[in-house]
Amino acid sequence: NERDLRLRKKYGINVSGNDVPSPLQSFAELSTRYGCDSYLLHNLVKLGFKEPTPIQRQAIPVLLSGRECFAKAPTGSGKTLAFVYPMLMKLKHASKDGIRAVILCHTRELATQTMRECKKMAKGSKFRIKLMTKELVRNADFAKVYCDILISTPRRLQLCISKKKKKIDLSRVEYLVLDESDKLFEHSLLEQTDSVVKACCNPSIIRSLFSATLPDFVEEVARTVMHDAVRVIVGDKNA
Ligand code: ADP
Ligand code: MG
Which one of 4, 15, 59, 184 has the largest count of C-beta atoms within 10 Å of its C-beta? Predict the structure, then answer.
């Protein structure tokens, strides 16, 4: 429709896929269109975020409509919120239903930073957000560990998957985000990333890939496992 095309043009958003949901005109639509809880709007005010960034305008509605997605947007363009907000909205309330969402990061530093951001965005809710630390890998009885959102590197998560005893159960994960996904698919991490993706075997899982570059091979690999994914690109496709 005309309005969607105009907005996308204005913000340099390129999309491909079937029935791509309308981009957000403002953060207020999170409430008027999607009925988000007020703590989320309150946290935007506290963070000082007035307008959604282009990637947030398009990726949030895509994920909220239950679609899988590939998103490419420059570094510093607000990709973290673009995947964390829909995740918080979809998970709705804290629950003790095993591990419900996973965010994979290619380095421990990025995982730590993502957890900090995530906690700020979830402030005022009861969500349990956990970072996979070395101690957790070594000591936890994963038969008893639950959390709403787990943030980890592929290496640490794979160690927990391949434990002989007390191993982690990812079969109930409803949302899986691969952040800086091009790095997760590089040779050195590919096998570990792949085993995490396979362990997240819930048939109704929603997966998404976020990165600053989207090499063709990454998209090709991902397309083989993703269902009816939407591709969202902000800026130049080949940048
Ligand atoms: P990326 O993952 O795309 O590199 P980040 O998610 O790390 O980017 O965000 C970069 C910076 O932009 C962070 O400091 C974040 O707090 C800020 N930011 C995110 N969304 C907004 C927004 N809508 N308005 C203003 N600043 C934002
Ligand atoms: Mg990022």
Answer: 59
ipTM score over 0.90, yes or no: yes
- How far is the C-alpha of 111 from the C-alpha of 224, rounded, in Å? 26
For residues 30 and 41, the answer to whether their CB atoms sit within 8 Å is yes
Distance CA 224, CA 237 (A): 21
Ligand 2 centroid distance, CA of 54 (Å): 14
Closest ligand 1 atom to residue 113 Cα is 7
Provide the residue type at 227 as one letter. Answer: H
Residue 13 tokens read as 């958003």
Token readout for 117 is 């951001």
pTM above threshold 0.95: yes
C-alpha 4/C-alpha 6 separation (Å) is 5
Q: How many Å apart are CA 219 and CA 225, to the nearest integer?
A: 10
- Give the closest residue to 93 by CA, choosing from 128, 61, 42, 131: 128
- 235 touches ligand 1 (CB under 6 Å): no
E-strand ranges in the chain read 13-16, 69-72, 99-104, 129-131, 147-152, 175-179, 206-211, 230-234
**Per-chain residues with Cβ under 5 A from ion ligand 2:** 79
By C-alpha distance, which of 110, 114, 196, 194 is closest to 157? 196
